[in-house]
Amino acid sequence: MGTVLLLMAGCGNANEEAAPDASKDSPATETTEKDTTEKVENTSKDEGEEADMEKENEVTSEETVSIEPDSTSADAGNQQDEDALSEYTSEQIEYARVWLQLGPNQDIDGLYVERIPADTPLNPDDETSGVYPEDVIQLAGSRLVDGSVTYSGNGNGTINVYNVPLRWDGEYPAGEEFYTEIIDNTELVLIDVGEDTEVIRLIELLKEQP
Which own/partner contact pairs does 179-188 have at CB distance under 8 Å and 24+ positions apart? Predict the structure, then answer.
């Protein structure tokens, strides 16, 4: 009987030694805690990157806003330039721009416009004179010293300039060849838009020849 009790006691000790200590960390527990820590760190890192991206987007938006007013101002300036001449006709603007670029004297007290139809002699006082092959415009000041500009418009910002004087001086008849050379050597000129203030000043001096 004593032998049996001794064996049972031995078995009980063996079972107690084999049982694992629940208070100690197992490898599985260590792995779980490590994964949890890494997830928290990754989440914090992702949130930080998203915050940086949002900040960059905010800066970009602010930069875009700062550029837009300049563009709007440029458009407004162009619109104002167009409005400055809106009350005048295209012919008035053309006459003023032509004189502003080609007129011999800008200090005039009147800008006179004469429309000369095609087939009109270049020099009415010379029977050998050739004729204008097209309708032309002659601009002149109120004085002879102001000079003149005789031209035809091409409708595309260019004009054909005829090298004829406001008053013909010389010996006549000059001969057909003389006038043919003038007609054949018209000069093609591109007209600048000029300053609006100067264009308006000349428009206000325009006078139609009777």
Answer: 179/122, 179/123, 179/126, 179/128, 179/129, 179/130, 180/130, 182/122, 182/130, 183/122, 183/130, 183/132, 183/133, 186/160, 186/161, 186/162, 187/160, 187/161, 187/163, 188/158, 188/159, 188/160, 188/161
**What's the CA angle centered on 101, arms 160 and 185, to 5 degrees?**
25
Average pLDDT of the chain to the nearest whole number: 77
Q: How far apart are alpha carbons 94 and 99 in whole angstroms?
A: 9
Whole-model pTM?
Answer: 0.62
pLDDT digits (tens, 9 = 90+) for 181-193: 999 999 999 999 9
d(CA 112, CA 205): 8
